[in-house]
Structure formats: C-alpha cells, structure tokens
Amino acid sequence: MSIAKKILTTPLRIALSILLLGILAKILQWSYAPAVIIFAFSTIAILYSLRFWKKNPKVFVDYVKLVLVTFWTMNGVFRILDFPYTIFFQVVTGISFITWFIMEGTAYFMDVDRRAKNSAAQIWWNIAMVLGTLAIILGSLLKILQWEFATPMLLSGFFIVTLYILKDVFIVAKIEEKDQESGEFQL
After folding, report:
1. pTM of the predicted structure, to 2 decimals
2. Neighbouring residues of 149: CB distance < 8 A, sequence distance ≥ 6
3. How large is the angle between the packed helices 60-80 and 33-54, nearest 10 degrees?
4. Which of 29, 31, 141, 173 has its CA 20 to 30 A from that of 56?
C-alpha cells in the first residue's frame, strides 16, 4: 500500500466512524445528530475526491467508485436536509454500485494471490465484524418492534463495527514495521 493511500485511508475510516456514530445518535434522537451526519458525509466526499485525484493511472472502475461515493454522500446530505427528489441520487448510487460489483465485486476484498494466511487476531476481528453487523440488523428490527433490549443491542453493534473500522488506525505502527521488515535493502 502506498503512502498516499495510507494518508487518506485513516481520515476516511475516521469519517466513516463519525458517520456511524452520527447515525446512532439520530436513531437515539440526540440533538446535533443531523449536523454530525452532514459533516461526516461531506468529509467522506471531499477525502475520497482527493484520493481519486491523487491516483494515477485512473481506470474506468475508479470513475465508477467516484460516482458511487459522490452520489451516496450527496443522497445522505439531501436526505438529512429533507430535500425532495433524492430518488435520483439513489438510482445513480444503485446503478454505480451494481456496475462496481460486476466489474470488481468481491475480488476487491480478496487477496491478489488468494494465499493470504489470516492470523488468529484477524479471524477474531472478522468474527467481531460479522457479529457487530448482525447486532445492528437485529437491533434495528427489534427497535421497529419496540422491544426492550433493542437499543443496547443496536449500541453494541455500532460500537463493534466502529472499532473494526478504526482497528487499523491504532495498529499502524505494527503494520509499518512489518512492511519495512519484508522490504528490499537498497543502497
């Protein structure tokens, strides 16, 4: 991973975490939640645009991802501000997502050589992510049904997913050390 990507990946992950916390605050009907969500969406749009413009060479799938992120963030901001006609942004987001999924899809998440060996810690983090996602889904459904323990389940799911997104922010030093150990010696 290049240094330019590392510089922009950490702020993007932080912005995504702020977005998750803003959505959680909106569900819990806290004041200032819409402002936090708008800030997070705007930050994601700006950071991803900067990341796109720094990338060389650009291929078609990069443009598709830019359209996907741009229209997704605009839809989020317009929905929070209760603007009409957000269906246009949702349709463009959906079309660009389907295009991205057809072109890159699950290969985006796989190792290039498909020989990746996950450590026990990585496996536990992945299990935590799945459990956090399931807790968000189940908590949302139970919140709709107004069950007693829906809010704690929803809170725990958002907390786990936020920790998963931010996990690399806290262990960057270890990753950089590992990258330098496997590097080539140059004079």
Report:
1. 0.68
2. 142
3. 160
4. 173
**Tokens for 79?**
């929905």
pLDDT by residue (tens digit) across 44-82? 999 999 999 888 888 888 899 999 999 999 999 999 999
Structure tokens at 123: 């496996």
Q: Where are the alpha helices (DSSP H) in 81-187?
A: 87-103, 120-144, 150-170, 172-181
DSSP state of 76: H
pLDDT in tens, 117-162: 567 777 787 788 888 889 988 988 998 898 888 889 988 998 888 8
Q: How far is CA 74 from CA 14, 92, 103, 125, 173, in A?
A: 19, 11, 23, 31, 34
Helix (H, G, I), strand (E, B) or coil at 185: coil
Buried b (16+ CB within 10 A) or exposed e, 45-82: bebbeebbeebeeeeeeeebbbbbbbbbbbbbbbebee
* 128 in Cβ contact with 160 (< 8 Å): yes
At 113 the three-state DSSP class reads coil
Amino acid at site 22 = G
